[in-house]
Amino acid sequence: MTFDQDQIVFSPLDIDLTRSPLYGQIGEPTFVLGAFNPGFTRLPNGNLLMMVRVAEALSNPKTEHEIFAIRWAADRGFVRDGYDLSLVDVTDPRKFRLRGHSSKVMALTSLSWLLPVELDPSGGIIVAVHYTKAIAPMAEYQEYGVEDARISRVGDTWYMTTCSVSAQRHSTTLYTSADGLNYSLKGVIMDHQNKDMLIFEGKVDDKFFALTRPLGDLYFAYPPDSSFEAGPSINLSSSPDALHWKPSDRPLIRPRRGSTSVMKVGGGTAPILTDRGWLLLYHGVQPGTIVGTYRTFYAYLDKNDPSVVLSVDDSDPVLESRPELTLPIKDLSYLTDVVFTTGLVEDGDHFIVASGEDDLACRITRIPKARFGL
């Protein structure tokens, strides 16, 4: 499908590392591995805001005998930790596995922080990069970074969920804002390894609802004749206050056998209410590469009972990775075949969609509402 706007609007080349929260603290040079997966919302002034995940990595991550990870320590700021190079697996460029532990233990090749980038109302022009409002680790449960913001506006408050990474837990944390630009940390709201949490942009029966995705290394088999495949899936939770969450007893959207999303699915955009119900964009992953091929699909949930799935379109992707978009920065690329959609804003008879492209840059796409049957 041809879109009237589909472009990279922000990339590692647009970042001034002298204004990074890490600047001058590690004693070693760093570079931007990726500027991607932006939380997305419209500000009161009409402009758009991307809350960009900046993955900052060491320029020289290893010596002859050691490989290093960046960590934030409450008493020292940002530091380097060294690990015996002979005891790690570095197959995945985003992380390395530490051998010799009874559990599966990983370390990251970068540390992520969040950078607010303001765009014009159409999403095509950068208006301001708000370094003074950057969000960096500030709690022990964020020692390895703050990742993948998702922003929802409910009433007069903006709710931003993030993944906070540490040795203690891999959790979902909440920030809130009264203006969409300045955020304050409220703490952990979903515990160990719960990713892609998205709060609905509106309440149902005076309750908050959210998409969640609990992760684990163990999944139990569906019956041989089931249409579903065991693995990471999109679940639903509700809350009276956006802080305390009750998981739904019903499953929501699951990997389906025979589809290209058989590896896993996960939430993409905060559900918004339309004439057809709650619309959400999500990612489905097909195995075949180191991380798999990520595509964007969409689904509708019942407006009065979001635990009821009205429709799922997992056959015709809304978005796929487009190598030509990142061709000017191809020398920075380390992944392919990944589009990770993270935000959806209405704009007349179109939606403006924000995505991370190949874990490298921020992509903005303008899509007619008719694409979703509206």
Automatic annotation (TrEMBL):
Presence of keyword Transferase: yes
Family of this protein: Belongs to the glycosyl hydrolase 130 family.
Keyword Acyltransferase: no
PANTHER family, sorted: GLYCOSIDASE (PTHR34106)
Organism: Luteolibacter soli
UniProt KW keywords: Glycosyltransferase, Transferase
Matching Gene3D superfamilies: Glycosyl hydrolase domain, family 43 (2.115.10.20)
InterPro entries according to UniProt: Glyco_hydro_beta-prop_sf, Mannoside_phosphorylase
Pfam families: Glyco_hydro_130
Coiled coil: none
Protein name listed in UniProt: Glycosidase
Tree of life domain: Bacteria
